[in-house]
Amino acid sequence: MKYARLTKEQFEELHQEFINFLATQSITGEEWKKLKAEKPEVAEQELDIFSDLIWEGVLNKVSYLEHISPKQLMLFHISEAFMELIAIKVEDDNVDITTAYGYKWLQQNLHDDTVSLYTSTKAIKDDRNIDVFAIIQQGSLITKGELYTYFSELLKD
């Protein structure tokens, strides 16, 4: 398995897609029930293959990720060849950027001595989707890139 098995909830959401997947494998509903009962290891393999297919489709479309914690904002822009990072760290104990107040404070105090800004670019050498999946596994969320674009524009000035 290349990524991670989908959760029960995700399988429920993708019920029709899973039925279609089984159909492409020439597995009917009855055959699926029989497979689960008589050859659970084969059924498990089918679940894993389906999970990887879904993840691959999702990861192929990812362009932006973000990870926000009380003291740190990590914004990623991912292309086919590069992964760009904007990282912002707040070292003021009274500020939590996961709150509306803390985020507003950050916007107004970006050049404060307690705020550190870092940018980095890394070439993607092997499997782009494995790199993206690893960042998601560490708690990042897939986004449309509004925060990345916002801070990228601020850094250009």
Overview features:
157 residues, alpha+beta, 50% helix, 2 domains, single chain
List the helices and strands and how they pair.
Blueprint: H1 8-13, H2 15-24, H3 29-38, H4 40-61, E1 64-69, E2 72-78, E3 82-90, H5 100-108, E4 115-123, H6 128-137, E5 141-143, H7 146-156
Antiparallel strand pairs: 1-2, 1-5, 2-3, 3-4
Helix pairs in contact: 3-4
Structural commentary:
The chain is built from 7 helices and 5 strands; from the N terminus they run ααααβββαβαβα. The chain is of the alpha+beta class. It has 2 domains: 8-61; 64-156, no CATH class. It has a 5-stranded antiparallel beta sheet with strand order 4-3-2-1-5, sandwiched between helices. The mean pLDDT is 93. It comes from Aequorivita sublithincola (strain DSM 14238 / LMG 21431 / ACAM 643 / 9-3). This is Histidyl-tRNA synthetase.
What would a concise description of this structure say?
The protein is α+β, with helices and mostly antiparallel strands and 157 residues long.
Question: Number of domains in the coordinates?
Answer: 2
- Structural class label: alpha+beta
- One letter per element, helices H and strands E, the order comes to HHHHEEEHEHEH
The whole-number mean of residue pLDDT values reads 93
Number of helices: 7
* First-residue to last-residue Cα separation: 45 Å
* Arrangement of strands in the largest sheet: 4-3-2-1-5
* Shape assignment: elongated
Tell how many strands the DSSP assignment holds: 5
Kindly state the percentage of residues in helix: 40-55%
Largest sheet: 5 strands, antiparallel
Low-confidence stretches: none
